[in-house]
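Figure 2 data, in text form.
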Amino acid sequence: MLGRMVTLNGKPVSTDDLMPLALTNLGHFTSMRVDETGNIRGLTLHMERLVRDCKVVWGADLDTGRVRDYVRQSLEGQSRPCVVRVTVYDPKVEMGHPADADEPHILVSVRGAGAMPPAPLRAMSVPYERDLPEVKHVGLLGALHARRTAQLAGYGDALFVGRDGLVSEGGTWNVAFVDQNGTVVWPQAPVLPGVTMALLQQRAEHKVATVTLEQAKGMEAAFATNTSIGVRALSAIDEVEFPTEQAVLTRLQEAYLSVPGETL
């Protein structure tokens, strides 16, 4: 069974503990897919992200040994695969004086994991640029509003396009394309340095280049990546349809699944 317990520094969290996070929405996180064996692809990269973002958001060091201990504790008795999220925030943060908060705590939550890869995704282009795009932060209003806008229009999610007209990323995922030569193209833009993206870039030839929305729609194929979904084909961007059974996409999906998981 998948439990619902959420812990803060290894102990059951209280409503009072969660109120500052809910009311200020200041913090950062990473989400990790735990496979059937209990291992995690890209675990080292996830820990590096938490350390890096903790410096940016809180100006503080983060003990990844503690993080691993709390995650192991939260995974006891959980069914797998699952997704574990580590959120780092300070329960004493206040709206008027965020600079006073400098003792981040570690919140761990676990949820079920869906099939990987999930069904192809239809994306709608939406003008949007995330704040601090290099940080995986909890400020999701803009991204979720864009996602809601796309879903109300009949799409599955939003594809962000900046004020410069360049494609950047998706609602909670990185995006990449396959050009007419079969080359994987990752957008050169302010984006979250995704763990799945990094693992794929280590294992598959690619290039990084600016991609306009018009260029994106002229690509041979497109796909989304994050820890929960792996490599997910995009079946459409706006009115333009893409093939979802494509040799390069198949190779990328296989390459990602071949990445060995790391032990907590």
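Caption note: The longest strand covers residues 82-89.
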